[in-house]
Amino acid sequence: MRNFQGIHPTALIGDNVTLGTNVTLGVRTIVYDNVVIGDNTVVGADCILGEPQAGIYSDPEGYRNPVLNIGSGAIIRSGTIIYAGTELGAHFECGHRVTIREGARIGHHVRIGTLSDIQGHCDIGNYVRLHSNVHIGHKSVVKDYVWIFPYVVLTNDPHPPSNTLVGVTVEEFAVIATMSVILPGVTVGSNALVGASSLVRSDVPDEAVVVGNPGKQVASIRDIKSRFDGSPVYPWCETFDRGMPWEGIGYTAWQQQLRDGQSG
Amino acid sequence: MRNFQGIHPTALIGDNVTLGTNVTLGVRTIVYDNVVIGDNTVVGADCILGEPQAGIYSDPEGYRNPVLNIGSGAIIRSGTIIYAGTELGAHFECGHRVTIREGARIGHHVRIGTLSDIQGHCDIGNYVRLHSNVHIGHKSVVKDYVWIFPYVVLTNDPHPPSNTLVGVTVEEFAVIATMSVILPGVTVGSNALVGASSLVRSDVPDEAVVVGNPGKQVASIRDIKSRFDGSPVYPWCETFDRGMPWEGIGYTAWQQQLRDGQSG
Amino acid sequence: MRNFQGIHPTALIGDNVTLGTNVTLGVRTIVYDNVVIGDNTVVGADCILGEPQAGIYSDPEGYRNPVLNIGSGAIIRSGTIIYAGTELGAHFECGHRVTIREGARIGHHVRIGTLSDIQGHCDIGNYVRLHSNVHIGHKSVVKDYVWIFPYVVLTNDPHPPSNTLVGVTVEEFAVIATMSVILPGVTVGSNALVGASSLVRSDVPDEAVVVGNPGKQVASIRDIKSRFDGSPVYPWCETFDRGMPWEGIGYTAWQQQLRDGQSG
């Protein structure tokens, strides 16, 4: 089966689909009407791009599929379903069987893990990392450089079931560890760290460490030392750079470059 | 690809399959032997209906597939797998990649979200709402108008691993918020509310609010006021009607109609 | 559609694939290059075996797929994805849409439930049981006869995000109940029992019962009595035998047989 590139003969492609140069569509992938895919994007097997919204069931004749825009340089692994009416920035990458519903606006250089469920009508910034099986509720706002680990849920209904949804906001560089739940309307502050299995009921200050059920602030991220050598670990941008724009030069130097560029 | 209706030529259909009028079977959907699908049902791409039970592996020649019955007016989204030997009532609707195993009896007007895992040998009533990624263990009983949110697990084994399973019972109108676990044999009472990330180890009284790990009763649902306007929120049937039989008229008037009809 | 056996005509098979005798490959299953499948293995529909590793995206021309070895007598249900560069022992069985990434070494007689996500670069012993939706992080070591229930996560990053991963070790016969999280570097002792929804931050002694968030030792497994008849339940190998090598004869007699065999 060699290393397949190009449009596989079993792929099904709808009307008014725009494919950039050097796009690969894997075995049996379905692209519905009105999908735009940027250059050099690779789509795996059994994906569905431009999945029709619910309106198709109530009015199958009159339904028109909204545009799905997928940026250039994306890697979309097999079994992923992305609805019509969503925007994905450049260099998107995801695992298998991800679901992204309508009305999601997703920035560039975002990675989303296997089985994650993006409910749509949400904003996800640039360089965001969602690990496997993350659940992002409607109306969530996830800003740049946020990390969210497996089985985290961003909720939105303060009085379930109701019609008054209030999203969660996660500020830049915040980290939410596995199995935590963030209740509706909560803001997780910049560079904050939410420990595993926490239930976060109220706003988390910038740089705070919150753990427990119910979640309580127990420290500042600046109190955390490496268990290996005792050195400071957070803010993580100063100790980790893989896949980040400051990779190889460090966050401080990169910031300086940005300032030099702006002033230059 | 227009708005496809009908039996897609790539669908595979087994022996003794009964399709109602105006049924749609999506791209590459597989329908195994002895499946009955009601009128006006729409099945998405890549579904498997009538998945054979485990007996086929031990006796592939002698195995006969039990009947799967799917009611009329269902919407079954792509990637869903429903086993042989299950019953789904009318107006069923589900998200993507749902799994429903054998011996599940599911009422009418039920909605089940993406990736939910119904283990089978369980009873689910009418107008039940399961959000994404809900896990319903064997022997669970979920009654009418129950709402269960993402990553909730209804367990069944008091001494894992053992052969003495004891299911959970969730009474009418109860609500279980995200990431909660209900331990084996527990009954969650009518109109009760289990908060997010709770571990429920003992029976929950009707109309009780239980939160925490371990879960404790902290209030009555009648104590909860809207965070927006301070008005009562629960019982939710009095403040929410979308998709419910009292939609547009209110629960009280609907109940009155039922009484009038019975006496009329 | 009869009870299908053999290689389905819609299956796609790559180069240098070795199939044992009496192998079934289901509808539309994809087998990439350099996969070895043992005798009498049954692979369901829509599976992907030998999924290429990430290197294919950076060097599609030069990439060569590592070997995936699947032992004899396996049952792999539909939608499962197993990466190249992994080893599965004989009599493996899994549910639907399981993901197993590269560098996983999995023993014999292992069962893995629907939607479980094995991140790869991990060791899983013999007769291990993972229920639905279990997440095994990189560098985890799960020894023989371990049981792990739904939504459990074995983590690995003590300072997320970082490059210094430290896996969890789960010793023989340990049981981890649903929705529990084991933090990086923790060892769960032999025959220990971690209760549902626990957050385990430190090593669990052999035969200890740990529950809560944070998890605390509350008992020995020998203190637990059956809720049905008051008899001891643990160590579970003495009260449960389904699918185990001591099935029908009991653990003690089986151990005696092993000793007799060794000395005979």
Describe the structure.
Chains A, B, C: Keywords: Repeat, Transferase. Chains A, B, C: InterPro entries: Hexapep_transf_CS, Trans_hexapeptide_repeat, Trimer_LpxA-like_sf. Chains A, B, C: It comes from Novilysobacter avium. Three copies of one chain form a homotrimer. Chain A is mainly beta. The first copy, chain A, has two domains: 12-228, Hexapeptide repeat proteins (UDP N-Acetylglucosamine Acyltransferase, domain 1, 3 Solenoid), CATH 2.160.10.10; 229-264. The first copy, chain A, contains two helices and 30 strands. In chain A, a hairpin with a 4-residue loop joins β29 and β30. Chain A is globular. The mean pLDDT of chain A is 96. Chains in contact: A-B, A-C, B-C. At the A-C interface, loops of A face β1 of C.
